[in-house]
Design goal:
This protein has 395 residues and is of the alpha+beta class. The chain folds into two domains: 269 residues, L,D-transpeptidase catalytic domain-like; 119 residues, Nuclear Transport Factor 2, Chain: A (Roll). The strands form five sheets. A five-stranded antiparallel β-sheet has the order 2-15-16-17-18. The chain has a five-stranded mixed β-sheet with strand order 5-4-3-13-7. Strand 15 and strand 16 form a beta hairpin. The protein starts with 15 loop residues before the first helix and ends with a strand.
Length: 395
């Protein structure tokens, strides 16, 4: 969570400053691959090569704490004093734990998850719709994925090492130092020069708490995607007050694709289910059919069929009276001879952290014998105990 004085929130609508800084950065190498190569050389006993790799890495990334630690490990190994990675480091316990956790996350991704991420897609990305890009965070693995809309299919174009809250994820209240789980959107950009050094080269706030968070009485504010302080390259995996954090290089890179103007969706996940494109298409079809049935029942002017799609208890996330609303719909339908509905789905995502729930945003064009109009709508659907999909919120 971020708490700053009002004057700090200077922002740039164009993000031109961010793009200019990107070109000023050195991007002639892969930080993570270099770190993993050094680890591999140490583990395989190629100590001279490890030192050479560490020197080259530190020449390009002098603020790399991992690079300095691994170079010291390689030198210690020459004397036979190294029994495990970072065993001889004279660092505070918390700092050392953070660095070793970071190494494990990076190594695990490259050895176990990278191939999966490049062949399968997250089950949450059912319909990207009008969005050119969507960000998906795998918080247990400390990874941020950037997907491009490739003619309706999600295509992975970037993945980044990421830090989350010092207390992990699953935010419930202000000050718990946890990163939220849910579906959000980037709603601003704040230039780095307007921020304290802690937040690095800039920040992309997201709209936490969303409607579902507020329904669950989750509190807090200021959840940002931001960069790292100037004295380090990357933070430990659990280090923020609830934000999700990239290195400054990676923040500047992702800034070429995401923006507040585009309302880029951000899916912060406690777990990722990986599917083939065929499996994703089948699940998408099933969810679209749920929405289509609701649409058809509305057009039928059968009020009972139409209203049966809505959750009765805690109607509209506790913001309405189901019986009064149903009676109004009945009165409206009785005064009409036809209803025609056209839906342009702008996004449809499975909701992380909740079993059997999805959120859909769409442009609705409504036509009847006595009214016509267009509106932007959002629905949250959740499967009830009997196995039926119900709308728990519409607005």
């Amino acid at each position: 969570m971020v708490a700053l004085a009002p004057h700090v929130f200077a922002q740039s609508n164009s993000q031109e400053a961010l793009k200019a800084e990107l070109h000023a950065y050195k991007a002639n190498g892969d930080y993570e691959l270099a770190v993993l190569a050094i680890i591999d050389s140490i583990q395989t006993g190629q100590l001279e090569l490890a030192i050479q790799q560490a020197d080259a890495h530190l020449a390009q990334f002098p603020k790399s704490q991992l690079g300095h630690l691994l170079r010291a490990d390689a030198l210690s190994a020459f004397t036979g004093e190294l029994h495990s990675v970072a065993a001889n480091a004279s660092l505070p316990a918390a700092s050392l734990a953070g660095l070793t956790h970071q190494m494990r996350n990076r190594w695990k991704h490259r050895s176990e998850h990278e191939a999966i991420a490049h062949t399968l897609v997250p089950s949450s990305l059912l319909v990207m719709g009008d969005h050119s890009h969507v960000v998906v965070a795998d918080m247990p693995e400390g990874r941020l994925y950037l997907y491009e809309n490739d003619q309706g299919n999600p295509k992975l174009i970037r993945d980044y090492y990421m830090s989350v809250g010092a207390a992990g994820y699953g935010k419930q209240f202000e000050g718990d130092n946890k990163t939220p789980i849910g579906v959000y959107a980037i709603n601003r950009y704040i230039e780095g020069r307007a921020l304290p050094d802690l937040y690095g080269k800039g920040a992309f706030p997201v709209d936490y708490p969303n409607r579902y968070d507020r329904y669950l009485k989750r509190t807090g504010y200021g959840i940002w995607l931001h960069g790292t302080p100037s004295d380090t390259y990357a933070r430990s995996p659990w280090a923020s007050e609830g934000c999700f954090v990239l290195s400054n290089d990676d923040l500047l890179d992702i800034g070429r694709y995401v923006s507040a103007e585009k309302r880029t969706p951000v899916i912060l996940s406690d777990t990722i289910e990986w599917l083939t494109l065929e499996q994703l298409a089948a699940r998408k079809k099933a969810f679209i059919e749920v929405v289509e049935k609701w649409k058809n029942d509305w057009e039928s002017l059968d009020t009972n069929a139409y209203t049966s799609h809505y959750e009765v208890n805690d109607f509209n996330l506790g913001k309405g009276d189901y019986r009064a609303w149903k009676q109004r719909k009945k009165d409206v339908n009785e005064a009409k001879t036809f209803v025609q509905l056209d839906l342009d789905i702008q996004s449809l995502f499975s909701y992380p952290g909740v079993e059997d729930m999805f959120v859909v945003k769409y442009k609705q064009r409504y036509l009847s014998d006595n009214f016509a109009g267009e509106s932007e709508k959002e629905q949250f659907w959740k499967k009830d105990e009997s196995g039926h999909w119900r709308i728990i919120y519409e607005g």
